[in-house]
Amino acid sequence: MSGNRIGVLIVDDSAVVRQALSARLSNSGDIEVIGVAADPIFAMERMNRVWPDVVVLDIEMPRMDGITFLKKIMSTRPTPVVICSTMTTRGAETTMDALAAGAVSVIPKPTTGLKQFIQDEGGDIVSAVRAAARSNVRRAQDAVRAPVSVGPAPSFVSVAERGSILGTTTDRVVAIGTSTGGTQALEVVLTALPPTCAGIVIVQHMPEKFTAAFAARLDGLCELEVSEAVDGDRVLTGRALVAPGGKHMELRRDGAQYRVRVFDGPLVNRHRPSVDVLFRSVAKMAGRNALGVIMTGMGDDGARGLLEMRRAGAFTVAQDEATSLVYGMPHEAVQLGAAEREAPLSAIPEVIRKYG
């Protein structure tokens, strides 16, 4: 950071966006816009003189696209990057590429009414920049590249004991909650899992219209079936369901089967979907049949829900500080006593494999 202020460079080919973002960020009190650029070539010239703490980056720009520029930054000097992108299908898919390349988070922007949008939703961009400034991009990049480790299996309650507690099913469920940095972390975890692993339910804080592209990307990379959840979907072995952006997701029991409920509702911990909403439902519906995993993210969403899972007999794991892009959500869970174990990102797939 530049003293006590966060130095930000805005890279966007729209003068209207540059002006509106500059005004909103500069008025936050702790953020200083140290420069603006109409494309990545101009941006790199500025960065060679003064390197920013955070880059706010558009994707579609002249001379060099945002993805290429992002990869250049990450290979030269890993720096927190917040993507500010339009909410089109093509834009969503490209944004997933940006997150996979190391962007910290995404702020969607509309194609019209930009000034009003930034005024109305300006808190989101300010929060995203503040979170990005507190992230450790280099550490997270190292964690993503680390080989998946194989270690001793944790001690789980036996299938027979689980059955005696819940009576009608011994099916296991893995519930994962994550936020900032979670797209890369989830890719590491899910691509390392076999199609025989227990059914997985996931909340990743992400804007509406982006979760479908995120799930589709993972589905193309994984042996598992990965999809954006639809109300009533069954939780099955070898399937991972991602909560849709803008909707909450809960686990429900249907006889001996698990299904998900996808629904509207108020924000919980400032989020929809909320990790707490998912974890609390898993505690009630699955109890000791569940494994709870909380990973990198800003804030405390999921910590209390994970505690409820642990109290219900579930095995609970938090990603450790050394491999978290933002050690916020996992830290809160550890402080509450919600996590039975901390583990590096590279060890989490093995915990899931041996569990289910």
TrEMBL record:
Protein EC: 3.1.1.61, 3.5.1.44
Domain Response regulatory per the UniProt entry, residue ranges: 7-124
UniProt xrefs under CDD domains: CheB_Rec, REC_CheB-like
Sites of 4-aspartylphosphate modification: 58
Gene3D superfamilies reported for this sequence: 3.40.50.2300, Methylesterase CheB, C-terminal domain
SMART domains in the cross-refs: REC
Cellular component aspect of the GO annotation: cytoplasm
GO biological process: chemotaxis
Keywords (A to Z) from UniProt: Chemotaxis, Cytoplasm, Hydrolase, Phosphoprotein
Domain CheB-type methylesterase: 167-356
Family: Belongs to the CheB family.
Function in brief: Involved in chemotaxis. Part of a chemotaxis signal transduction system that modulates chemotaxis in response to various stimuli. Catalyzes the demethylation of specific methylglutamate residues introduced into the chemoreceptors (methyl-accepting chemotaxis proteins or MCP) by CheR. Also mediates the irreversible deamidation of specific glutamine residues to glutamic acid.
UniProt-listed NCBIfam families: PRK00742.1, PRK12555.1
Official protein name in the record: Protein-glutamate methylesterase/protein-glutamine glutaminase
